[in-house]
Amino acid sequence: MAIDAKTLVKCSVSNCHYWGEQNVCKADTIMIEIDRHADVKLNEEYGEETFMNNHRDVAEQSSATCCLTFKPKK
Predict the structure, then answer these.
(1) Residue 9 lies inside a defined structural domain of this protein
(2) Per the database record, which ranges form the DUF1540 domain (predicted)?
(3) What is the mean pLDDT of each successive set of 10 residues along the chain, which is 74 residues long?
(4) Could you tell me the maximum CA-CA distance found in the chain, to the nearest angstrom?
(5) Which of 24, 29, 53, 64 could disulfide-link to 20, CB 3.0 to 4.6 Å?
(6) CA distance 56 to 64
(7) What string of DSSP letters covers 10-61?
(8) What distance in Å separates the CA atoms of residue 24 and residue 13, rounded to the nearest whole number?
(9) Please, which residues have CB within 8 angstroms of residue 44's CB and are 6 or more apart in sequence?
(10) 18 occurs within a structural domain
(11) Would residue 15 count as lying in a domain?
């Protein structure tokens, strides 16, 4: 799948490695999962491969989701 343009992702979690000025996420890939899968242990080297396995879930509202891309700033 070819992607022509990068979508602007806003994030207020300023202690994330990928957080940028004006709350812009600088990550190349954004992984969002439903909360019931939030305990899955993924690191950024392998996360994309697992995420791209085409599983699908349904969230009723945004509060039922979480960002798996988060990585604390060092």
Answers:
(1) no
(2) 9-70
(3) 74 92 91 72 50 67 80 87
(4) 34
(5) 24
(6) 14
(7) B---TTBTTEEGGGEE--SS--EEEGGGTT----HHHHHHHHTT------SS
(8) 10
(9) 69, 71
(10) no
(11) no
Instruction: HSE, CB side, 13 Å, CA atoms: give it for residue 54.
Output: 0
Sequence length of the chain is 74
pTM for the predicted model, two decimal places: 0.64
Q: Which structure tokens are listed for 52?
A: 């791209």
Structure tokens at 44: 């950024």
Provide the 8-state DSSP code for 5: S
| SS3 call for 72 | strand
Per-residue pLDDT, 31: 84
| Domain, as residue range, for 48 | 29-74
